[in-house]
Amino acid sequence: MCGFIGVYGPDGVDVGPEIYEGLLSIQHRGQDAAGIITFTDTFHLKKGGGLVRDVFSADDMERLRGNLGVGHVRYPTIGGGSVDDAQPFHVNFPVGVAMAHNGNLTNFQALRDTHATKSGTRMNSSCDLEVLLYVFVRALAERVRPGQLVKAEDVFAAVKVVFEEVKGAYSVVAVLPDVGLLAFRDPFGIKPISWGTKQTDEGPWFAVASESVVLDVAGYGDIQDLAAGEAMFIGTDGKVERSRIGDKPHRPCIFELVYFARPDSMLDKISVYKTRIRFGQALARQWKASGAPTPDVIIPIPDSSRDAAMAMAGEMGVPYREGLVKNRYVGRTFIMPDQDARQSSVRRKLNAIPLEFQGKDVCLVDDSIVRGNTARRIVRMAREAGANKVYMAVTSPPLVSPCPYGIDMATKTEFIATDSTVREVSNQLETDYLMYLDRDAMNEAGRTGNPEIEQFCNACFTGDYPTGDITAEVLETIGGERTASRQKALPFHQS
To answer: What is the pLDDT of residue 93?
Structure first.
């Protein structure tokens, strides 16, 4: 999971500030590193480790000139702790291209061996985007000779080659100096991507982003999603050209709705906020139908479960309370680089309000449980605050399978629910009662927002991978890459 924004502004404007503001809007998608690249007569690049506000100085923004640019916030699944793996990436020859992506290449090692190791090409990083960029540029260079005008049909042909060679889940934005802005989405449309336009006195602006909230904040309108396997190109004439290149069924990631995305985003015409409300309502109905004990109060584990908890409380007629206060200056624990960092941050991140716990049967609502360490510590925190009993309701099913598409779930051994019953998981979490949302109910809550979505990717809940090319060997390779990345991860130093 990463976040990006690409902007194509009118001649004479600088898009750097717009990109910077956009990255702040998607900081939740990656806290490991950030980068911006723009173009005038040359590329202007700045990237470094940490949060957006820490990476870019006033001098950097003064230098990031040009009306064409890309920004990125990184959450690593492939690559280690080196600033070399921070995005965007760019090449100057044979065709100038700067690129950023959100996702994960499942055949990264094979591509690197074919296009780098065996060919003698030297890679500058261990990030999978660099290989994707190489495949795209090589395909484009085979069609366009130096000095020849690059057309939309040339760009789309290069994207077609990417779809043929690059496996996995990815949404991509790229800028081609003196040519235009390109965006495309993998054939199954697993990762989200939106685009929009706005009119100013200087002329039209175009932007592409990982989530629609970026475009909302910046004042873009007519916001649309790219379809699965679709590419979009905006040339120097301002004409928007779109082409459906892939032919696979659309399988967007349901975990975006469960956890990753901001509630004020729309993904594939689905409101994240309303979907989470439907999660909570469905969970309440399931709770009551099961005969589970009625809590005295419902408390969310902030932030992404707040809307669901409020809806669950309303559906059950149980008081809703904010019993856990979040320190907003501590990052999202799920996307922290290692388990030690996740565990040590929990107490700094959350603090209980004892008055909301003392003597009460409390139901904590969370969006998901991966390893269980964070959940167990929060349950203990609730008991220390005086709770009589601690129940837990989860707005997604048990996570049991690794995600090869860009979520940091490396191996089956990391999941608390693997080979365990719900009762056994409850015992490990030290809860008095535990309930997961039924998978069909979760999917129905998502489809209600857009009935055109026939199925979501549920691979992390089922082990059924929609791309059809995920084997035990692939999972083992990806798991090894991520484990190695965690072990060698070191704090970034700004470049």
So the answer is: 83
What's the confidence (pLDDT) of residue 411?
61
- Determine, yes or no, domain membership for 423: yes
Pair 383, 414 in one domain = yes
Distance of alpha carbon 73 from alpha carbon 222, whole angstroms: 25
The band of 11, judged by pLDDT with boundaries at 50, 70 and 90, is very high
Q: Which domain holds residue 167?
A: 3-250
Give pTM, 2 decimals.
Answer: 0.92
Residue 352: C-alpha distances to residues 151, 251, 303, 347, 348 (Å): 58, 39, 14, 10, 11
- Strand 350-352 relative to strand 68-74, pairing: unpaired
| Residue 106, both tokens | 């499942």
Average of pLDDT values for 370-382?
Answer: 95
Catalytic residues: 2
Long-range own/partner contacts, residues 266-272 (CB < 8 A, 24 or more apart):
266/194, 266/212, 266/223, 267/192, 267/194, 267/211, 267/212, 267/225, 268/189, 268/192, 268/225, 268/450, 268/453, 269/225, 269/449, 269/450, 269/452, 270/446, 270/449, 270/450, 270/453, 271/449
Instruction: Please tell me the least confidently modeled range out of 24-28, 302-306, 335-339.
Output: 335-339
Residues 287 and 399 in one domain: yes
**CA angle 293–299–305, rounded 5-degree value:** 110
CATH (domain of 387): 3.40.50.2020
